[in-house]
TrEMBL record:
Ranges where the Peptidase M1 alanyl aminopeptidase Ig-like fold domain occurs: 465-559
Cofactors (names): Zn(2+)
Entry GO MF terms: aminopeptidase activity
Protein name: Aminopeptidase N
Keyword Disulfide bond listed: no
UniProt entry keywords in alphabetical sequence: Aminopeptidase, Hydrolase, Metal-binding, Metalloprotease, Protease, Zinc
Residues in Peptidase M1 alanyl aminopeptidase C-terminal domain copies: 564-886
Family note: Belongs to the peptidase M1 family.
Organism name: Algimonas porphyrae
Domain annotation Peptidase M1 membrane alanine aminopeptidase: ranges: 246-460
Length: 889
């Protein structure tokens, strides 16, 4: 057994940390400064003596020098008790301790290092490192949390084989978990017990995890492609095990899919997932021991919406897929974050497409990309998919690195073709297994697979900003022998720190479409220069061009398509994405015109295009060859963010009112279709979370919400009825939101009964707070402030804060953007309040201000004042970095 002695428990803290140097502007970390670590750390052992107030960690590290220089270890907010080399206690003068490092100037070339430290998990409000949530111990180490546990080289390129002993009070912490396989467990004196875990796969410390507490467990198993039986265990709060069933099912489907689609088999002897309520983001792929925000793991019909089920499926898959793309092959440094995140998002999107339908999945992913990543890429926080510097790496877990990163992988696949893409992936898994890799090494595998020069493609990783792709059809003389011509030109606007942009390699999938369908096979034009002209055969019939089918590149299309073209594509495009997109383009144009008209105080003229648009929508709605989820998306407007970006600078309230106007117009034009569809979708039988059933509920919800936009009295009674009859959360919350939009007496009482019904279910209570946060309360910000003062509002719980404060900033256009500045001020206060506890969550919340330059001048001034106020309070590095970048140098 590898049990360490606990003889240090009573010894005094030996060190005093040097005083913090203040005022100096924090120094950024730069990609160009990368140097390998100067020691090899083949084995790491840790001995945790858990206590909520004073946990003792003793480490034993086997170090071998690979380059000259001192041994520098990272550490933050921990007390150093002792340092030993090869069993000899070091004198205090033999090392230096700063706020963030332990430095040993003089060490042998090969030695064993013992470090003993203490920390206070119960006081750890940052939720990074070791902390307590609901009386249970858990950890979050990515990106730089391990340094809050012990002194260690906290960098992803130091990979080590971990053995972990956990010793804790047995009654309070009956379950003791860490990565890998459990090799020993037993009781010890004083009502304590221990477990020893060993992970045979060398890993960086950001993948370390430890969990201790009282849990219920859901068990299942999976038989791998090579016939190995893997026990699967999901650990949840007592009583919650039935709510983990969907996550378990998703896990098994993910494991099977990764074998099928990528040839990847699971490697350890067991796989565990733990749900925790207090968590900074979604989930974490710790080796063999994933830790999840309970909101992305627990679901049942009564308490979770279809969207919750969908996210659980995709995040369970995402974290599982990281086992190969992230863990077996990790990142050399944090600048390579997209190497694991972009690729893994691509993999989870492909999985969801396989499970739920490719077209619908693609549409949802692109909608999210446009609302979040395009907003980021066209604002003050724009950064390349592979950034070159950061203050806090936590601030770079962004839509650009995740979602745009995934788009780059998708373009590789589109460009090289399925078989070559898969070959490149196989080379990657084969060549780089067990290493900490770079984006260049990844791309080199596709070069090996395809023989293509990948150099031009790399520009996508270096250059921030969303390219604009302009498409023009050129008239050619009417002669059957002369072909027709389409020209593409690209332009990427400047982004902070990158004024000049080079042309990108843009794969454009396109096709000519006539009134009876396609007139040619889909073409792939791979653009590499600023402009490119392509010719195609002449047709004798009217036709339109379907450009960027499947959204073949993360670009903003500026097409010269007429309304007639778009209506034709809505009816005839064989590419489901572009069929949907044609309607969106039309709606976007209508919304932008309307928002501008409303801003200048005029009512929009009835647009002649509307009639044809409703006709095309109605036709889709009645067409049985489309699935309900697709129809629901066709009835969904472009996000307010898309319209805001297209119409900027603009009054955001005008954008929101334009949305109401279009919804009303659609509801007027399609009232009967909507009523009939609503009625047809109504009785969906017993609840099932599958895609088809969820699609029915989504379509039903869309119809109800459109009818409500017209303040149809019928809509109010339908919503009230739906709320009373609801047997699942999708219907229940959909009805509640509709009622809250319609206003009237029923709202307050419905809100109150919802609260009473669900106040003991934290995840549903989060929904309550976000619905409340998005309402147009008559007394404005005071209502929101009151909500933040209710006893069930937990300001230290990230989910609750995101529900109220995030819901308010992102979902309550009217109150957040009030011209008296009250919304912005409240929001900034909340960010600062959170910053005192949890800087990474605070910085992420603050991102809601990133759109400020797209707003009208008055609001720009109001937000600028709040950003300046935040900076003046000397916030955390996390918040400072975001506020300064947003403010612009
Ligand atoms: N690797 C995790 C995931 O994508 C997310 C970790 C987020 N870490 C952070 N510091 N924001 O699944
Ligand atoms: Zn990830």
């Amino acid at each position: 057994a590898i049990i360490f002695a606990h003889n240090i428990a009573a010894s005094p803290i030996l060190t005093h940390i040097l005083p913090m140097k203040t005022d100096a502007a924090p120094k950024p970390t730069r990609l160009e400064d990368y140097t390998p670590f100067n020691f090899d750390l083949s084995e790491s052992r840790f001995d945790f003596r858990l206590d909520p107030r004073q946990t003792t960690v003793r480490s034993l590290l086997s170090l071998t020098r690979t380059a000259p220089g001192p041994l520098v270890l990272d550490g933050e907010n921990i007390d150093l008790v002792s340092v030993e080399i090869d069993g000899r206690l070091l004198k205090r003068t033999a090392y230096r301790v700063t706020q963030t490092q332990l430095i040993l100037d003089d060490v042998p070339d090969q030695f064993a290092l013992n470090i003993t430290t203490r920390c206070d998990p119960s006081a750890n409000t940052t939720l990074m490192g070791l902390y307590v949530s609901g009386g249970r111990f858990c950890t979050q180490c990515e990106a730089e949390g391990f340094r809050r546990i012990t002194y260690y080289p906290d960098r992803p390129d130091v990979m080590s084989e971990f053995t972990v002993l956990i010793d804790a009070d047995k009654a309070a912490y009956p379950t003791l978990l860490a990565n890998g396989n459990m090799i020993e467990a037993g009781d010890i004196d004083g009502g304590r017990h221990y477990a020893i875990w060993h992970d045979p796969f060398p890993k960086p410390c950001y993948l370390f995890a430890l969990v201790a507490g009282e849990f219920d467990r859901l068990d299942d198993s999976f038989i791998t492609m090579n016939g190995r039986t893997i026990p699967l265990e999901i650990y949840v709060d007592p009583g919650d095990a039935p709510k983990a069933a969907y996550a378990m099912d998703s896990l098994k489907r993910s494991m099977a899919w990764d074998e099928r689609a990528f040839g990847r088999e699971y490697d350890l002897d067991r796989f565990m997932i733990v749900a925790v309520r207090d968590f900074n983001f979604g989930a974490m792929e710790n080796k063999g021991l994933n830790i999840f925000n309970s909101s992305l793991l627990l679901a049942d019909a009564q308490t979770a919406t279809d969207l919750n089920f969908e996210r659980i499926e995709s995040v369970v898959a995402h974290e599982y897929f990281h086992n190969w793309t992230g863990n077996r092959i990790t990142c050399r440094d944090w600048f390579q974050l997209c190497l694991k995140e972009g690729f893994t998002v691509f993999r989870d999107q492909e999985f969801s497409a396989d499970q739920r339908g490719a077209a619908v999945q693609r549409i949802k992913d692109v909608r999210a990309l446009r609302a979040r990543q395009f907003a980021e890429d066209n604002g003050p926080l724009a950064h390349p998919v592979r950034p070159t510097e950061y203050l806090k790496i936590d601030n770079f877990y962004t839509a650009t690195i995740y979602e745009k990163g995934a788009e780059l992988i998708r373009m590789l696949k589109t460009w090289l073709g399925d078989a070559t893409f898969r070959k490149g992936c196989d080379i990657y898994f084969d060549r780089l297994d067990g290493t900490a890799a770079t984006v260049e090494q990844f791309i080199a595998c596709f070069e090996a697979a395809s023989g293509e020069d990948m150099h031009p493609f790399m520009q996508w990783y270096h250059q921030a900003g969303t390219p604009r792709l302009t498409v023009e059809r050129h008239q050619t003389p009417t002669s059957p022998v002369i072909s027709q011509v389409v020209s593409f030109s690209q332009m990427t606007p400047p982004t902070p720190g990158q004024a000049d942009k080079a042309p990108l390699m843009i794969p454009i999938r396109w096709q000519a479409i006539g009134d009876d369908g396609p007139l040619m096979d889909p073409q792939l034009t791979v653009m590499t220069t600023d402009t490119q002209t392509v010719s195609y055969p002449r047709f004798d019939v009217p036709h339109s061009l379907s450009i960027m089918q499947g959204f073949s590149a993360p670009a903003i299309l500026r097409s010269d398509a007429t309304t007639e073209d778009l209506i034709r594509l809505m009816g005839q495009d064989p590419d489901a994405f572009n069929r949907w997109e044609a309607g969106q383009t039309l709606a976007r144009r209508l919304l932008v015109d309307c928002a501008r008209a409303l801003e200048s105080g005029t009512m929009p003229e009835p647009d002649p295009a509307l009639g044809a648009f409703f006709g095309a929508l109605g036709k889709t709605l009645r067409d049985d060859s489309f699935d309900d989820a697709f129809k629901a998306l066709v009835l969904t407007q472009p996000t307010g963010m898309e319209v805001l970006m297209a119409a900027a600078p603009i009054d955001p309230i005008a954008v929101s009112e334009a949305g109401d106007w279009l919804a009303r117009a659609v509801a007027d034009g399609l009232r009967n279709d909507l009523l009939q569809t609503y009625a047809a979708m109504k009785d969906s039988g017993p609840f099932s979370p599958d895609a088809a059933s969820a699609g029915r509920r989504a379509l039903k919800g869309r119809c109800l919400s459109l009818l409500a936009a017209r303040f149809d009295p019928l809509a109010a009674s339908l919503a009230a009825q739906q709320l009373d009859d609801a047997t699942n959360m999708t219907d229940e919350i959909g009805a509640l939101i509709t009622l809250s939009r319609l206003g009237g007496q029923r709202v307050e009482s419905s809100m109150e009964s919802f609260f009473e019904k669900w106040k003991d279910q934290p995840l549903v209570l989060d929904k309550y707070y976000s619905v409340q946060a998005m309402r147009h309360h008559a007394d404005g910000i005071h209502a929101i402030i009151r909500l933040a003062e209710t006893p069930t509002y937990e300001r230290s719980n990230p989910n609750r804060v995101r529900a109220l404060v995030g819901g308010f900033a992102m979902g309550n256009v009217r109150l957040f953007h009030r011209l008296d500045g009250s919304g912005y001020r409240f929001f900034a206060d909340q960010v600062l309040d959170m910053d005192g506890r949890n800087p990474s969550v605070a910085a992420r919340l603050l991102g809601a201000f990133e759109i400020w330059r797209k707003l009208d001048a008055k609001r720009q001034q109001l937000i600028r004042d709040q950003l300046d106020r935040i900076i003046a309070t000397r916030p955390s590095k996390n918040v400072l970095e975001i506020a300064q970048r947003m403010r612009g140098a």
